[in-house]
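Model it.
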Amino acid sequence: MESSLTLYFYQYMNNKTLKQNFRQTILAIFAFATAINAANAQTMKQWRDSLNNVNKELKLFPNSTKLLLSKAAVNLQLLEWSDAIEACGQVLAKDKNNLSALYYRAYAYNNLRRYSLAKNDYERFLSMSPDNMEARLGLAYTYMLMDRDAEALDQLNNLIELHPENSVAYAARAELEKDMKMYDTALFDFDEALKRDPTNTDYTVSKVEILILQGRRKEAKKALDTAVSHGVPRGLLIEWYTKCK
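Modeled.
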């Protein structure tokens, strides 16, 4: 797991609900967290070919933790949640503290709506690696799926304490605050995110959405102008400029 993977946290942000946004962003994180660098280039057929190759190797080396984790990663790419859980279980039977297996299994459990089991795996992961950003985001996401927004907010508060210079931490908390209609605190957090990443179009758009909701169109336009002054192409923001009129 690499903390730099959180740079992709906002890759799929759009105007859907918070939980849909979080689902997309967790998917984005996972795509880069599987340690398979060709994630974006692979077609489903290529993933199936990869799985066939891994299965062949596993017949020769059935106890290989590395191969079992590779199998789990490919299973997840193929949306084969139960198979991924089984492979991770085999790894954890040999190494109960294997972080990759816990992370992959938690991700798979969430996709099967087995949220309590996902929560348990993320919590085990964080008990051993408390500053890991992806796992803490995953746990926050799981709490939201369980309609436990206060606990999700606690996790995001912890995330900011652990990573105070990371724009994603502030933006994630702001999205939850926006969903909870805590607009003033959400705006504060989007401003903090933009201080750290001023060219991030998604942060700007989320901030502008709140300002427009509050009828603060002049401030919304000013936020758009600021983004353009930092190098964001104006054409990417035309829709939002129109909404500010």
